[in-house]
Amino acid sequence: MKRINIFLTMLALIGGMTACNDQLDVQNPNYQTTYEFGNTESDLQEAIIACYNRIRLEGTFARVGYTLDAVRGDEVWNSSQQWYLEYDKLNSPGTIGIGDEWIWRDNYHVVNRTNFVLSKVDEVTMSEDSYNQIKGQALFLRSLAYYELATYYQTVPLIIDYASYSDINTMYASNNTQDEVFDQIEADLTEAMQMLPSRDKGGEWAQGRATSGSAAGYLARALMFRHKFSDANEILKDIIAGDYGTYKLTEDYGDNFREGSAYENNSESLFEVQFMDYGTGGTDEEWTPVNISSDATQGHAVESNYASQDLGSWGDLAASPWLYNLFKKETCTDGRLDPRLYWTLATYESEYSTYTGLNTAAYPNGDPRSNTVYQQELNEQDWLYKIRSNTAQGGISIAKFTNARDEVYSSITNGLHCGINLRLMRYSDVLLRAAECENEINGPNQTAIDYINEVRRRVALEDIQLSDFPNADALFEQIANVERPKEFGCENGRGIDLLRWGFFYDEGRLNQLVEHAYYLLAPKETFIIDGKEQDLVVISTDELTAETASASSYQYYTKGHEYFPIFQSTLNSNPNLTGNSANKNEDNGPAFLEKWTVRPVVE
Q: Is the dihedral of CA 505, 506, 510, 513 positive or negative?
């Protein structure tokens, strides 16, 4: 009996141990490692979606990654005189997080995730179409991140091997030259352009994703940054010919700045960052990469920077009076204002109360909402003392990529809530870049003029004539300082244009930037309110001069700071990393002028 009890006890112990082993073999799918994940097509499809998620962070395109290039340009200034001030003046000391660290941090998160996908995709069995789609998207998104990094920080580590992270000898990467980074960008985009389907062939799959047209458009941008105009022109002509999908200008310019499926990912969009429509996301604001909330708002905060403080925004950024007056210098063929003014700046214009030509099909007698900003109907007195970009400093509020003109809500919820997709590249950019390339290669010709006029006709401006431009310098001036700022004013990209044109390295061009960037702090007028005189801050739309302006953003420019400095803490943490021209206050002019020329100012 004793032996039987011992035998039964041993069986129970063996059974218990076996059960424990079975339990230990169960894996929690929520705690997969990079070694276990990414080994199936399904895993990689999920991983590529995670790569898109990283371009919607604060430092990529959800806020400062988008707006800091705008404030680096000459048509936007820091109206709150806070937060963006050192980047508006181009003199950051390298110790401020928003530009020196956040853009760097978040774009390298994109690089990290795309490198992971690229390290796995060649080892997974799948169809050729799936392989091309997954790898092509990863290559495009990695090149997008490096395009931002190289144009913000000049010399950055080029990390393309995921395995290098696990080796102490390679994980602390050193700087690569800007040319080395752009060589990789061009290689990635060339491969992606050949692998990805066009928007036409991609169909529903292509909605919101990178396509061959996206890669082709960005490859042309990368080539033009290094003045490879002939190579860029061939790609741009192929896009125009429809080789990478069918693109055309929307009939209504404003359709590029509305939210909703009827407008987003439209015929003009080569690539845009996807955000959920206002009110359809969650409540958690996912500002940084460490937050991975399933209840994220999934909107952007560009509106919080661009819109009026009186309506709830931070009011950090405003349009320059130069841009406003540029719109006012030329009217449409029927005498009306250029409708791009309406969609770019939230100004009051008396003609908007009667007829703007916008939405004429729905409103044949004029758009009754035309002088409405965030559901608030404006009159001239309202505009002067109630609706302003910054309560303390004044400034022209920016309408683009906000719901100022869409009547979605009456006040702004600060943070990551605006649902308008950010169109990073539009077909109008293809046309104006093709015109620029033609002018650089052949001088003024009818082909270049036709490209420009296609953009102008959309907003009913008179055609420009070839006979008005006696040389390439004159046509370049028209493209750089009339056509492009009116079409793309207050969008991401103007600062990058100033870099590639070399405007910081020529005295005449730098003086021109100073003039464009004049602003007036806290302009006041006296009003009679409830029978009493009150001095109130108003919107100043006057053309400013050195005598009438408070200052200019560029009067504080320090050489080398057309790029943003690498964050000092990042330099301290990585012994192999060195500072760029902004960290060292080095003049990039001699190196630029050794390779290229700066076109002189043409009045």
A: negative
Report how far residue 525's alpha carbon sits from residue 503's, in angstroms, rounded to the nearest whole number. 36
Is residue 157 in a domain?
yes
275: three-class secondary structure by DSSP: coil
Residue 485 near residue 326 (C-beta atoms within 8 A): yes
Does the residue 388 lie in any domain? no
Are 336 and 351 in contact by the 8 Å Cβ rule? The answer is yes
Single-letter amino acid, residue 6: I
| pLDDT tens column, 386-421 | 666 666 788 999 999 999 998 899 999 999 999 999
Q: How confident is the model at residue 23 (pLDDT cuts 50, 70, 90)?
A: low
Domain count within the chain: 1
DSSP 579: -
Q: In whole angstroms, give the CA distance from residue 38 to residue 44.
A: 5
Q: If you search the block for the tokens 């001030």, which residue do you land on? A: 85
CA distance 561 to 472: 29
25 pLDDT band (50/70/90 cuts)?
A: low
- Inside any domain, residue 122: yes
Q: For residue 107, what are the domain limits?
A: 35-195+517-603
What does the mean pLDDT of the chain come to? 91
Q: What gap in Å lies between CA 454 and CA 108, rounded to an integer? A: 38
Q: Decide: pTM greater than 0.85.
A: yes
Tell me the C-alpha distance between 311 and 526, whole Å: 22
